[in-house]
Amino acid sequence: MLGPVILAASRSDQMRRFVSAAPGTKQVVDRFIAGETVDQVVPIVVAAADKGLEVTLDVVGEDITTREQSYAARDAYLELIDRLKDLGLGTKAEMSVKLSMFGQALEGGHELALANVRPVVEAAAAIGTTVTLDAEDHTTLDSMFAIHEELRKDFPQTGCVIQAYLFRTEDDARRLAANGSRVRIVKGAYKEPASVAYQEKAETDKAYVRILKILMEGSGYPMIGSHDPRLIAITQELARRAGRKLDEYEFQMLYGIRSDEHLRLAAEGHRMRVYTAYGTDWYGYFMRRLAEKPANLLFFGRSILTKG
């Protein structure tokens, strides 16, 4: 199983240096990362909107170690929101944030992350869009869900993410579906122990379908994060059974992966949102993309071998 090995490497400074220096890295990183600056990512938002797509924007860089870095992360999102406002793109782009980037892992991190993310949520609401709190490893989730609940008191459109491979997630899905939350469901991309998470893909896929059924039958807004054709078809069938209209749920896929499928779903009338990451600290995000699919790793390996 290569996935767990790659995920372990995502926390290694030595591997970070090796991968960053590899001659083929930029070619592969450019496939998954939309750019390093706001100026580079804004044209991608415009192009997506012209194609009938929406986006969720992630400023990458969750591995912070100081409060000053958490403030810089907050400010990066505020800068992004200002640019979207100036261009009238607020309704076409939401934000995805990792609370670790906002200081969640630091001393007093729960309160710090809440204080940092609130102005971002407020600014997003002011331009007609919203923020989704990304799920990270299982030790962070109680804090994330508590912050989500607190933000929804004033900004009920604030979303969160749940991960199908965790045993706890079916209970989380029932609670979130009952209170009308916007919920993105993904399979999960962190190395988790067998005590808290399914280790086999088949078990995770079964859990995904069970959770998806809970969300579709609830009163919230499901956001289906998957590139799996079978799960996309199951989603459409469960939505039909639940009597959901096409604008009562959406599909989400990663920038650079299955782009033709993005357009196909949008052409069928589905809401299709492209998860678009940008920024200079791309390493952790990039390694999780490699871990999720062996073909991505093979593509990376070929790129390194063919560049000199």
TrEMBL record:
Cofactor(s) needed: FAD
Superkingdom of origin organism: Bacteria
Pathway given in the UniProt record: Amino-acid degradation; L-proline degradation into L-glutamate; L-glutamate from L-proline: step 1/2
EC numbers on record: 1.5.5.2
Keyword Nucleotide-binding: yes
Catalysis performed (reactions): L-proline + a quinone = (S)-1-pyrroline-5-carboxylate + a quinol + H(+)
Swiss-Prot/TrEMBL keywords: FAD, Flavoprotein, Nucleotide-binding, Oxidoreductase, Proline metabolism
Alphabetized PANTHER family for the sequence: PROLINE DEHYDROGENASE 1, MITOCHONDRIAL, PROLINE OXIDASE
Name of this protein: proline dehydrogenase
